[in-house]
Amino acid sequence: KLSIQPSRDPFQPVPLRDNFYQSCAFFPLPFALITTTNEQGFTSIGPYALQFPLQICERYSMLLVTRPGSYTAANLRRNGECALNYTEDDKALLESVVAPRYPGVPPAKQMENTPFTMIKTPAPQFRDHADFPLILEEVFQVFECPVDGEFEYRPAREVDASLVEDFIPLRVENIMLRQSFKKKLDDRDEFPDMPISYGFRGGSEFWFAHHDQPFHYPLPRGK
After folding, report:
1. What 3-state DSSP class applies to 184?
2. The pTM is what?
3. How far, in Å, CA of 92 to CA of 90, rounded?
4. 153-196 per-position pLDDT tens digit
């Protein structure tokens, strides 16, 4: 663990470059396995750290940032349905997810030898929907989301549109927790051991971190 001594350890500027959150800084992120379906109804998995809460009051949504040419983006633009699957910190599962993940690998190839069991959602509003993807048996939490058509962000850039990242808003319509984790959420005294992503460094490695037991402070109260 680094010990910071401000008087002896001055700040230094870091030149900004693409993927600044991981190439120029330390920025821990949650990690979701996003399932979507293609034209043939085949469910594939896309691992994503860049998915964040967007609308948090009255309407509920997530914002997904992805390469515009990814299979996940193409599937979402076609049928607008996905599930965000959150797994516990399991090194073997993470290795199997990131191993074949690079552009151009077909979904069926990516899914070869996957350790995940693909199952239908138990949610009645999605279970019989032809375009809704399967979810992962081995996860503890799932967000079920259609694309939110009321929000769109397309920044103006000087490069070709195919090189500009895609910003896809996802309307959160259903959250599911395993029964044991629902109890943890209600009791507020135990937290799941979730993987924390630090992205890739040097374009060749995906970095993850473990976390310790969270601690808390009470909310401040007025006099």
Report:
1. helix
2. 0.89
3. 6
4. 877 777 777 778 889 999 999 999 999 999 989 988 788 888 88
Q: Phi first, then psi: give them for residue 88, nearest 5 degrees.
A: -75, 170
Poorest-confidence range of 76-90, 104-118, 162-176?
104-118
Mark 148-158 as b/e (b = at least 16 C-beta within 10 Å): beebeeeeeee
- On average, the pLDDT of the chain sits at 86
Residues 78-84, mean pLDDT to the nearest whole number = 95
Please give the single-letter amino acid code of residue 172. V
Coil, strand or helix: which one is 121?
coil
> Exposure pattern of 160-171 as b/e (b: 16+ CB <10 Å)?
eeeeebbbbbbb
- Beta strands in the chain, from DSSP E residues, in sequence order: 32-37, 43-48, 51-53, 61-66, 81-86, 118-119, 135-136, 141-146, 166-171, 174-177, 196-201, 205-209
Q: Spell out a b/e string for 15-24, using b for 16 or more CB atoms within 10 Å of the CB, else e.
A: eeeeeeebbe
